[in-house]
Amino acid sequence: MARMTIRQPIPRRLPDGSYMTIRFRVKQVMADTALSSLADFDVCELNEAERRRLTIAMHSIRDPLLMVLDNPTSDLGPLDSYFIVSMLSNHCRKYQRIIVFTIDRPRSDIFPFIDRVTFLCLGDIVYSG
Fold it and tell me: 94 lies in which domain range?
C-alpha cells in the first residue's frame, strides 16, 4: 500500500490554481496548524492530536469565512485541547474568520481564547455572553 504524507491530502481540497499559489497556501496552512515539521510523516503514524490538526488544515485550506467544528478537542488531553483552541483563536484573529465549535467539557484555561460562549443544558440556553 502506498504511503500518504501529511502534505498530500491538504491540496486536494483546493480549487484549481497555479502550482506556486497552491504550494504557498499549503505551506501557510501547515505552519498555522503546526504541521510543518511533520510534513513528510505518514498519515498513519500521527497521534490523535496531530490527526485533528490535519483535519482542521484540510478544512481551512479553502479559507472559508465560517467553519463549524463538532467537538475538536474530544478525546484529547488538556495540553492538546489547549493547543487546538489556541490555534483556532489565532486563525480567527489572523484571517478575520469565524469558527463555531462545540465542546463537551470546557476548561477555564481556554476561555481567554473564546470571544463568545453559549452554554446549553438539555437543549436550553442557560448562559450566553
Answer: 68-129
Helix (H) or strand (E) holding 126: strand 124-128
Statement to judge: residues 54 and 18 lie in one domain: yes
**Are both 8 and 53 inside the same structural domain?**
yes
Give the pTM. 0.83
What's the per-residue H, E or C state across 66-88? Answer: EEEECCCCCCCCHHHHHHHHHHH
What confidence tens digit (pLDDT) does each residue in 86-118 have?
999 999 999 999 999 998 888 889 889 988 888
Q: For residues 129 and 127, what is the distance between their CA atoms, to the nearest angstrom?
A: 7
In the numeric block, which cell numbers belong to residue 41? 510523516
Asked whether 42 and 80 are in contact (CB, 8 A), the reply is: no
User: Which of 42, 63, 84 is a domain's end point?
Assistant: 63
